[in-house]
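for the recovery benchmark. tokens below, seq after
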């Protein structure tokens, strides 16, 4: 995927769901993975020509995982002239060493988001951008349906009442395979820090399910995402005057 195509996807999501307003200060949550680094590139590129002016900062929550070196990410942010902040925590030690959690993902996500939100409010941001892409949206939809009996998924634009922050997801029209291609093409400095829970989550089960469905219907992602956009799910109300 080219940068031009990434920016086209991002602009479409931003316009369609009113993700950015004049004067916003947006924090990009940088995990070190391909998704968040692609999001950083997308918003940095969009900022250069988008008619509504906004500020951009990058924030990493260091979970305390071994060998988590963010020096290359710091270098990238410097090249892009995006201020970079790193929040050190002991989340890894708390979850795995102290509590010995067998299903750690939910607690880890809650603690990570709490640390992230505290930092970005301190920085004066009013919005935080998450790197959830189309596959994430679909997998969450399926998890909600299969495990909870609900029709729900991440929304493109979510207000957090407890913090006053707005969560935006500008990559909702980008497929994971496109991000993989973008990472290779632009040599993104991905930081690999192996989590003990990797590969054993319900999300991984959903990935396998989608791949199996794709064998019968190659358009399965398009079909499922269309169902989400037109399924009256809270937070997915669109601009009826918007044209693709």
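predicted aa per position
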């Amino acid at each position: 995927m080219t940068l031009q195509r990434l920016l086209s996807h991002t602009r479409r999501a931003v316009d369609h769901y009113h993700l950015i307003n004049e004067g916003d200060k947006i924090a990009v949550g940088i995990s070190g993975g391909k998704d968040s680094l692609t999001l950083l590139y997308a918003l940095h590129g969009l900022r250069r020509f988008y008619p509504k002016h906004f500020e951009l900062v990058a924030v990493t929550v260091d979970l305390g995982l071994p060998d988590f070196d963010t020096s290359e990410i710091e270098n990238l942010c410097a090249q892009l002239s995006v201020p970079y902040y790193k929040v050190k925590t002991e989340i890894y030690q708390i979850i795995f060493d102290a509590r010995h959690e067998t299903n750690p993902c939910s607690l880890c996500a809650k603690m990570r988001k709490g640390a992230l939100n505290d930092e970005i409010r301190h920085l004066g941001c009013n919005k935080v951008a998450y790197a959830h892409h189309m596959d994430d949206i679909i997998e969450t939809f399926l998890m909600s349906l299969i495990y909870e009996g609900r029709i729900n998924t991440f929304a493109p634009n979510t207000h957090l009442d407890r913090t006053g922050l707005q969560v935006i997801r500008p990559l909702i029209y980008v497929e994971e395979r496109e991000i993989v291609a973008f990472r290779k093409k632009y040599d993104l400095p991905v930081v690999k820090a192996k989590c003990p829970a990797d590969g054993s989550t319900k999300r991984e089960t959903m990935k396998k399910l989608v791949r199996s469905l794709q064998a019968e219907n190659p358009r399965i992602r398009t079909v499922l995402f269309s169902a989400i956009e037109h399924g009256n799910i809270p937070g997915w109300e669109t601009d009826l005057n918007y044209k693709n």
